[in-house]
Specification:
Number of domains: 1
Number of helices: 8
Structural class: alpha/beta
CATH architecture: 3-Layer(aba) Sandwich
Helix content: 25-40%
CATH class: Alpha Beta
Strand content: 15-25%
Distance between the termini: 40 Å
Oligomer: single chain
CATH topology: Rossmann fold
Number of strands: 8
Order of helices and strands: HEHHEHEHEEHEHEHE
Largest sheet: 8 strands, mixed
CATH superfamily: Vaccinia Virus protein VP39
Length: 225
């Protein structure tokens, strides 16, 4: 079901500028933007330290990123969400939480390289990305080769992608894609909530919904060679 547009969206987004260094892109033609535009973030200046920087892609309303930043004050987290109507909830909740190690990018994943330098991100979180099972939409899946090439550029050697999903077919597809594109797989779980990884797991809104329905949660870690 489509989310209703939030009231006073633009004004409320403007009031959240302190937690979102990038809101929107200067060109809707993403291919042209990626070819011609670079505005790299000064990450030490942004966070006021040289701590590791992690990414969450598709942060939605911010439940995971806010809790992760709260639990891990020595990690800087950039949460990415392209939908302004969705990210607003995350921005406002993050302001209330007052977490100096959490900032947001209101941009498409496709243009991350316009803002982040190669090797600048130590870990990427993919939490319940949309599976997009239609064959014609494969390039839009966040674990397709198109996006894995972006991750390989942003991650240093040994950098990781952590993925969680409730969709078995999407998980199998992701396993195949990571393996085919030079990532080493580790710490795979076919039922996260009954695994050793459950103790430190941050349960997202969608995750709780699916788990309450009795559906297993699939998890993997993919490491860049």
């Amino acid at each position: 079901m489509r989310m209703h547009r939030k009231s006073n969206l633009e004004a409320r987004l403007a009031r959240c500028a302190d937690v979102a260094p990038v809101m929107g892109v200067p060109d809707r033609n993403l291919k042209r933007l990626l070819e011609n535009y670079r505005n790299y973030l000064d990450l030490p200046a942004l966070f006021g330290n040289h701590n590791p920087v992690y990414l969450e892609l598709g942060c939605g309303c911010g439940g995971f990123c806010i809790e992760y930043a709260r639990r891990n004050p020595n990690v800087n987290l950039l949460a990415v969400e392209r939908m302004s109507n969705v990210i607003l909830t995350a921005l406002e909740n993050a302001q209330k939480a007052n977490l100096p190690n959490l900032r947001f990018l209101n941009i498409p994943v496709e243009v991350l390289q316009c803002y982040l330098k190669s090797g600048s991100v130590g870990r990427i979180f993919l939490n319940f990305s949309t599976p997009l099972p239609e064959k014609t939409r494969e390039r839009q899946r966040l674990t397709s080769k198109r996006f894995l090439d972006i991750y390989k550029d942003l991650l240093p050697s040994g950098g990781e992608v952590w993925q969680k999903t409730d969709d078995m077919h999407f998980f199998e597809y992701s396993l195949e894609q990571f393996s085919a594109n030079g990532f080493r797989l580790q710490n795979i779980s076919l039922d996260l909530h009954k695994s050793p990884f459950a103790a430190e797991n941050i349960v997202t809104e969608y995750e709780r919904k699916f788990s309450d329905m009795g559906m297993p949660i699939y998890r993997l870690e993919a490491v860049k060679a």
